[in-house]
Request: fold
Amino acid sequence: MRTPTGTRTKIVIDCKILNISCMSTQLKKTAFISGGAKGIGLAVAKAFIAEGINACIVDVDRASGEAIQSIFCKEELLFIEADVSKADDVQKAVNQCAAHFGRVDFLVNNAGIQRYSNAMNCTEEEWDLVMGTNLKSYFLCTKYCLPLILEGGGGCIVNVASVQSFVATANAVHYVTAKTALLGFTRSVAVDFAPSVRCVAVCPGTVYTPMVVDSWAQAADPSLIEQESINMHLVKRVAQPAEIADLVVYLCSPKATFITGQSFRIDGGIGVGIPGSVKEEQKKKENGVNGMLKVKSKK
Ligand code: NAD
Reply:
């Protein structure tokens, strides 16, 4: 903002004054979200906060985490820097979250990385890295959050898996293996901790996040890959992170208390049909069908 003399001045908004809900931290339910500084995890954090639920985002990306922290007051969002593939980091993060918010009701296991290799050229280091982040971290966060969730009277654990829990893309042997294993992990946790704790998995198709944008950028022709990704989905677009967040928040809500142990594909129809012939696709275009279904991806 410019002052009457024309010089720039920074306005510091004290959200504790503006936001009444910031005062009632200890009464509000709390969600622990791994990998919450960007992409789907960040959208989940924002969706929880919109529902009056505190969000604790745990991420290795300090710059992104601190940027988010500067927007939200610490009474509704807490960023903790931690590598969730490491037991010590997770234990400390859960303790810090409990000390700050007093409780954990929901856990969203979401941290993930994407690497590209097959069973022959994948190195042991890359296998361990992907498994550590995309599978072991889900176990570690569950292990250390469960006592708090049980102490608070129960809650819900949502594992962000993938459409690749059901179908495999090329050159993603570790990613596909980890995402598939998460379906078994989800059932196992649901069985062991029912009825107090529900455990579900959400399995997105392509979502417009930094992970996907980075992976498109690595291609020789990024716009071609983006168009191919869009075309893979029956709805002819990729998802926005908020669409996945809405499902996560619904599954944690009182409206979903009869749901546990299940996996939910939210994938724009990937793999539902067998791709039609070029002639059939052309006919659809002529009939204006593609045009009717197309919803332009917001970026
Ligand atoms: P993203 O890269 O945009 O965000 C992931 C976040 O996880 C980042 O902030 C990153 O710093 C964090 N992270 C990575 N390793 C970590 C670690 N060891 N400890 C703590 N934080 C760590 O990715 P995204 O697309 O939002 O993906 C979120 C989840 O959704 C992942 O599990 C991913 O596999 C899954 N998923 C994504 C898509 C998609 O198309 N974007 C599709 C299906 C499933």
